[in-house]
Amino acid sequence: MHYHVILTDECNLSCRYCRGKTFEDLEPSTIDEIDLSMPSEFVPEPEDLHAFLARDPEDPVVIFYGGEPLLRQDLIRSIIEGSDPRVRYYLYTNGLLLNSLDPRIIERLTLIHVSIDGGEALTDFYRGPGTYKRIIANMKAVDKMGFRGGIIARMTVGEETDIQDAVLHLAENQVFPFHSIHWQLDANFSRDYETRKFRDWVRKRYNPGITELVGTWVSRMRDGEVKRWYPFMETTRDLLNGGTSALRCGAGYANYSIMPDGSIGPCPVMIGMKEYTCGHISYSDPRALRKIEGTDKCRTCDITKFCGGRCLYSQLLEPWPAEGDDLVCESVLHLYRTLKGVVPEVRSLIRSGKIQESELVTERFNGCEIIP
Ligand code: SF4
Ligand code: SF4
Fold first, then answer.
1. What is the Cα–Cα distance from 358 to 366, expressed in whole angstroms?
2. 372, part of any domain
3. Cβ(313) to ligand 2 under 6 A?
4. Per the structure, how many domains does the chain have?
5. Is residue 366 included in any domain, yes or no?
6. Does residue 367 lie within any of the structural domains?
7. What is the pLDDT of residue 124?
8. 298 C-alpha vs ligand 1 centroid, how far in Å?
9. Which of 260, 257, 264, 292 is nearest to 279 (CA)?
């Protein structure tokens, strides 16, 4: 099982699409109870977390999450030290403190998700001046420190983003090209629909940009290279093989979040939402955590086997009105049709040996939402 562990609510950046904004504007009618006593820092003893993970018969994966988890390297060290070697550790970070990573942490980390939104101007627009340069310098520093695990660039994508330019910049710049890239739409997470220009952007820029980017992805395959662009990989493999998926991020059934008080929720964004509590590390059996179901809209949707429901949080909380929600689904339908359109060529590239199907494989539930 995969577990996000929320170490702290503190962050050393203030990004435009900050997670905190999702809490400020929730209406009491939407959620019965928000636990306002939830501590802002992780309080359980590391031994309690170790004991919980030891009860998981699958090799557990811990994804350090925040706020910015590297503000609590002391906690990370105390969790890593003396833990079961079966446990794999991943990190979700904004990248600003990667140059100060303790070597004892580096040697146990196997995957780093680093937030970066594209080129310098775009990243700095969303995340603050100077952010891009610091991230790139720190990525080079991590490389020098000997980190040989995986790195995934994670973009948050909104109306300022040209998806083709942003992904190609990250993938093919000469200074620090990222081999794996994932992106998620800044959409349907908070009650901001009325203030957004989402409708025009998604129809005129994002969806056409996805068409171009899928074309670029396949053209690189013709040269024998499968770019590790997460929203295209597992999805295309499923289309090739008739595979289906429940919620692709795994929230609430394959990927849980351990909150700062040790309670367990379906997803890191659902911190303190008591009615969705799935267990607690002090007494729960990882095999018997409560499962959280999505809504009828997704269950009955024509492309549910492809999409999986996109985002449990959005389904349950409905931050956007129906019009906005439908536009997000339109983007999923566009992705589905575009990928379906290239499946015959991808299949023939595999048959001819130009690429291997195994190059489309990703680790499921590793922290990527998959459907943007
Ligand atoms: S496209 Fe929309 S309605 Fe359909 S499964 Fe995905 S999120 Fe749910
Ligand atoms: S995509 Fe999954 S992990 Fe991300 S906010 Fe939605 S439910 Fe949570």
1. 17
2. no
3. yes
4. 1
5. no
6. no
7. 96
8. 5
9. 264
